[in-house]
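Table S7 (text form). Paired inputs.
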Amino acid sequence: MQSDNASQQDGNIAIVVGRGQLPGELVAGLMAKGRSPVLVGIEGETEPWLENFEHKVFAWGQLGAFFKHLKQSGVRQVLLAGSVTRPKIELSKMDMGAMASLPRVMAFMIGGDNSLLSGVIDLFGSKGIEVLGVHDVLPELLAEKGKIAGATPSRTAKRNIEKAFEACKLLGKLDIGQAAVAVGGRVVAVEGIEGTDGMLERVAGMRASGRLYENGTHGVLVKTMKPGQDMRADLPAIGPKTIEMISAAGLRGVAIEAGHSLVLARSETLSAAKREGVFIHGMETAQGAWDA
């Protein structure tokens, strides 16, 4: 069901487009629902497909021009979609609007991703622009509870999921990452700044070197939202590439937090899961809830 916020028609909605699959899915989904989002990107942080749409790209230091463009476009709501790298603050490249916001920006730049995202959301709010989440506009992208694809996790896989789930929540409390891998009843990898793909590459390397003796029949990837995380940005997500990397790492499946994680390119992701023999399971926030 579309939220009341997302159904308001008294102002345009903008998408700040970063890298990855999510921005494209949001554009297609909103257009299918009759909305024409204003597309804005950050220099060096966009995907090639953006060139097929009307859009504006701003450098990190053009914060004043960025917000002026949103105001002139009648934007009242915004979605933050995709990944971007942390900006380097270069005073010589900042416009007056950026300089005026510099103390606020410097304050939320100190800390982890949650601190940064909360600061960005507050900055938009100070400009009279409401930040929405994917769940507000395209709730169909959220992972459902229980079996999503493939076989039901085995008893051993469930134990691995519980171990990795616990690790994810501990990581999240420290604002480090959202994912972990468990094999043979122990956590063998956790996500850091390299992201989920980089972590899975490490697991594949460990498998190739013989450091993981277990054959992967029950090994799992788990992704969860960080405790206290704002759902309006950076929800954990999986897509076709995730499934292929899980298979390459010799793992059996992935468990994601139902209602708090995204399944992108769903038909392609489910097809990849079937092809690779990988399960996808939507796990409840309560650890070890297997009644679905």
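Next pair, protein 2 of 2.
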Amino acid sequence: MILIAKFLFAAIVAAILVGNAPAQGQERDRLPVYLAGSGNEALDQHILDLLKLNLGSQREFILLSDKQAALIDEAPIVTIGPGAFSRIRQANRKAPVLAMLATQNFLDGFTTLSPGRVSGIYYDVPLLRQALLGKAILPQATRIALLSTTGSAALYDTLIDQLQPYNLEARLFIVDDDKQLIPTLIRALSYGDFLLAAPDNVIYNPRTIKHILLTAYRRNRIVIGPSQAYVKAGSLASGYPSFSVMAEMAAAYLQVFFETGQFPAPDYPSDFQLEINQQVARSMNIPLASREQIAQAVERLLTSQEAQRDE
């Protein structure tokens, strides 16, 4: 696979630069991969099967209990979900950990403190890509409404600075207690052509999402994001990374670790799928292109700006 080949090449170059002894590489090559599960047996088994498929059947995979985690020294541990990651870090702060199904906001502090030893495949979608998804669906849109708490406002800092080249602007509306949620949301919807939701569990959670979606619907405003699950609940659309792409990338990261003793820096998958709620679109009289056409429109917006920056 192209992605794995790219990381293998990077691993070889890194090994030469840092002067890793062949004996060290051979020793790491015999290490197993430990897996700390999410508690969802079907999900954990699916990811394990995908990792085996991408990394090869010769590698030993071992399901890990929290007690066993304290004893791990140099073998990599793959964690599935933020809960598994937190448990492993509490049990062992020295073990090399590769996080799956955890967002950038959750992982960044850990990966910054332990570069190379803690890394991850981000489970969320870059907010700029989500914003451009809204633009592709509503080409006339120019203003984006954002909801956050004071503590999560930084989630949107990078996005706000990125929007101007796409003829978009955004405004942040702060909610710091439950009583403020709907009144603040109403003000946000009056401003924005659509509401863009980040993976902020304080704002967007099972307790609040029904109220947010109904309020947006009654004011004829769509919600984009924050994930595939929320599209099923009533958001109009969201990008999401597929398990197969995340597993391919995780396998590549593990192979780099076995070659160099270090993980690459955490990153987003290179490819995203698109979930659309057709029923919501019909009820709001929003004409939709095909899923493929919308995805292509997002890619064109991104690549056009990249080309301009390279000139």
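The chain has two domains: 2-123+242-260, 127-239+277-310.
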